[in-house]
UniProtKB/TrEMBL annotation, chain A:
<dbReference type="GO" id="GO:0015833">
    <property type="term" value="P:peptide transport"/>
</dbReference>
<keyword id="KW-0653">Protein transport</keyword>
<feature type="transmembrane region" description="Helical">
    <location>
        <begin position="126"/>
        <end position="150"/>
    </location>
</feature>
<keyword id="KW-0472">Membrane</keyword>
<protein>
    <submittedName>
        <fullName>ABC transporter permease</fullName>
    </submittedName>
</protein>
<feature type="transmembrane region" description="Helical">
    <location>
        <begin position="79"/>
        <end position="106"/>
    </location>
</feature>
<dbReference type="GO" id="GO:0005886">
    <property type="term" value="C:plasma membrane"/>
</dbReference>
<keyword id="KW-1133">Transmembrane helix</keyword>
<keyword id="KW-0571">Peptide transport</keyword>
From TrEMBL, chain B:
<keyword id="KW-1003">Cell membrane</keyword>
<dbReference type="Pfam" id="PF00528">
    <property type="entry name" value="BPD_transp_1"/>
</dbReference>
<dbReference type="InterPro" id="IPR000515">
    <property type="entry name" value="MetI-like"/>
</dbReference>
<dbReference type="Pfam" id="PF19300">
    <property type="entry name" value="BPD_transp_1_N"/>
</dbReference>
<feature type="transmembrane region" description="Helical">
    <location>
        <begin position="146"/>
        <end position="165"/>
    </location>
</feature>
<keyword id="KW-0813">Transport</keyword>
<keyword id="KW-0812">Transmembrane</keyword>
<feature type="transmembrane region" description="Helical">
    <location>
        <begin position="202"/>
        <end position="221"/>
    </location>
</feature>
<protein>
    <submittedName>
        <fullName>ABC transporter permease</fullName>
    </submittedName>
</protein>
Length: 278, 335
């Protein structure tokens, strides 16, 4: 099938870009050519290197305060990854735990969790995020809490269905017959079988977390404006669009590739891990 | 839908609404800062503070406070906006039409585009056109509405200034209408200069909202069309000599549309959520734009009103989709 042939390439490309972002975030202080906060009014709105009027060393140009765009993007990767890992991880833990419980125990546990999920999902996510950030106050911690508190339902729904399917399998009954405890079966038998699905969802969720953080920085609800974030750079670029398009375009490309890579990595993982599809 | 299943649906809707109210109340009440302390000048006496607490019901238990608050909300009393010093419900209902018009326009575009792509992909299945449709769908799906909006601003503000990239209408037109459903009212009044201007402002934000949804619709509809195309009755229609296009359009589509409908309903609620950021991006004066300003001003009564109105809207859309599904699906008609 064409799908199978394309999968490794998809995984390689998306994985490669994500690795690049991780490297940029980890080694930002060493690889960024300039201080991301340093302003220089003599160097404001320099174009990227291939356009006349550019300054050597400022590869992707400067913004309206003379700050280096490339350096700010490299440091922006830190925020993007912190949010992806912490918010995505927290949403994954909460949602998977509740989904496993609902799917495995059924009955009242399932009904209560199901109802909470229904109520949760009747809020528009972006609006819910705004409500939470309004109450918690702006800042990175609020953004992370908001994403985790909102997006656990994505995990809970899918993992619940998956767990239900697994619980009906013969191997679970056999484990009961040989006298294993229910909690033991859940942890040792069911969990390993739903783990691939959790991995796929986590990759998708990390992409969502990155875009949500960018959106909240864009509307100035994330971290302080001075610190470089892709969303904050995009917001600044939006106001400069007629004078300096590069301030908008480069962080947009970084954001786009990262979000795309997370979702493609998840999809590629799904194709590889799902024995039925293979 | 039978009366019984309808009442079950309605009851579950009320439970969900109640849950939404609890969540909003809890979230707003855990907000740091004593609301009374913010109202009084420094140096107010203990007696004054107590009197004001009593006035706002803050001396009662949390459960009592919740029901007092809920009673007000049910009667349309959402409180007064701190930043705009106006009744919250009045402000929210004034902005709601702009958002509804934008979201509906986006839905129409998404359905039309999705239908077109699905029919095209089915008509030319196994050929290059189908691969192109799949590729396009994959691409539109992975770009969120926020990025689409930015791409359009970049394209149309910088490269080809065809459409305006901010506002709902040219302020010079300033139509003096009864309702705030400007688009609808301008059509009813045959005021086409206003209609045209509204549509031009709406085009880019609506398209940004519509593209991801159109890809979802196209994918699901194409999949179910594919399944239906192999069925006997479609073969029969083909044997009767109908053209391939007529077979798809008149026979296959009727049976393939149901799964798409349910999905489009759920996705429509996501689209409405997306208006928050897209309106901000295009400075479109709707509810979403208002929501962000309310957060920046920490205007909790206003935020609470907007969130509740959105939640009610969501629940109503889901109900409407269920009803529509039941009417269209013959198997559920007397269930």
């Amino acid at each position: 099938m064409a799908e199978t042939a394309r999968t490794p390439l998809r995984l390689w490309l998306s994985g490669g870009w994500l690795l690049l972002v991780v490297a940029a975030a980890l080694f930002a202080p060493w690889i960024a050519p300039h201080d991301p906060l340093a302003q220089d009014l003599f160097l404001e709105r320099l174009p990227p290197f291939w356009i006349e009027g550019s300054e050597p060393g400022y590869w992707l140009g400067t913004d309206s305060l003379g700050r280096d765009v490339l350096s700010r993007m490299i440091f922006g990767a830190q925020i993007a990854l912190i949010v992806a890992i912490l918010a995505g991880g927290a949403a994954c833990l909460i949602g998977s735990a509740l989904g496993l419980a609902a799917g495995y125990f059924g009955g009242w546990t399932d009904r209560v969790i199901g109802r909470i999920v229904d109520i949760w999902m009747s809020f528009p996510p972006v609006l819910f995020a705004i409500l939470l950030v309004a109450v918690l106050g702006t800042g990175l911690h609020s953004v992370i809490i908001a994403i985790a508190v909102i997006d656990w339902t994505r995990f809970a729904r899918v993992i619940r269905a998956e767990t239900m399917g697994q619980t009906r399998m013969d191997y679970v009954d056999s484990a009961l017959v040989v006298g294993r405890s229910r909690a033991g079966i859940l942890a040792r038998e069911v969990l390993p079988n739903v783990l691939p699905t959790i991995g796929v969802l986590l990759s998708l969720e990390m992409g969502i977390a990155v875009i949500v953080e960018a959106i909240l920085s864009f509307v100035n609800l994330s971290i302080a404006t001075d610190d470089p974030t892709w969303g904050g750079m995009i917001a600044e670029g939006r106001t400069q669009i007629h004078f300096a398009w590069w301030v908008l375009v480069f962080p947009m490309i970084a954001l786009f590739l990262t979000v795309l890579s997370f979702s493609q990595f998840g999809e590629g993982l799904k194709d590889r891990l799902d024995p039925v599809l293979r | 839908m039978s009366l019984k299943s309808f009442s079950i649906r309605l009851a579950s809707m009320i439970v969900t609404l109640f849950g939404v109210a609890v969540v909003v109340f809890v979230v707003i009440r855990v907000a740091p800062g004593d609301p009374i302390a913010m109202m009084l000048p420094p140096g107010a006496s203990e007696a004054d503070i107590e009197r004001l607490r009593g006035l706002y019901g803050l001396d009662k238990t949390v459960v009592e406070q919740f029901f007092i608050w809920l009673g007000g909300v049910v009667q349309g009393d959402f409180g007064t906006s701190i930043s705009l010093r106006q009744d919250v419900l009045t402000i929210v209902l004034g902005r709601l039409p702009a958002t509804l018009e934008l979201a509906t326009m986006a839905l129409v575009i998404a359905c039309a585009l999705g239908l077109l792509l699905a029919v095209l992909g089915t008509r030319r299945r196994g050929r290059r056109a189908e691969a192109a449709v799949d590729l396009w769908n994959g691409m539109t799906l992975s770009i969120p509405d926020f990025l689409w909006g930015l791409i359009f601003i970049l394209l149309f503000a910088v490269a080809i200034p065809l459409f305006p990239v901010s506002g709902r209408i040219n302020p010079q037109l300033n139509p003096d209408y009864v309702t705030n459903f400007l688009l609808l009212e301008s059509i009813l009044r045959f005021d086409f200069a206003v209609t045209g201007n509204l549509l031009r402002h709406m085009a880019l934000p609506a398209l940004a909202l519509a593209l991801p949804l159109s890809a979802v619709i196209a994918q699901v509809l194409k999949q179910s069309l594919k399944e239906v195309m192999g069925l006997d009755y479609v073969m029969l229609a083909r044997a009767k000599g109908f053209s391939e296009f007529a077979v798809i359009w008149r026979e296959a589509l009727r049976n393939a549309i149901l799964p798409t409908l349910t999905l489009a309903g759920v996705q429509f609620t996501f689209l409405i959520g997306g208006t928050v950021i897209v309106e901000k991006l295009f400075s479109y004066e709707g509810l979403g734009n208002l929501a962000i300003d309310a957060v920046i001003n920490r205007d909790l009564p206003l935020i609470q009103g907007i969130v509740l109105v959105f939640a009610v809207l969501f629940i109503l859309i889901n109900l409407a989709v269920d009803l529509l599904y039941a009417t269209l699906n013959p198997r559920l008609r007397n269930g």
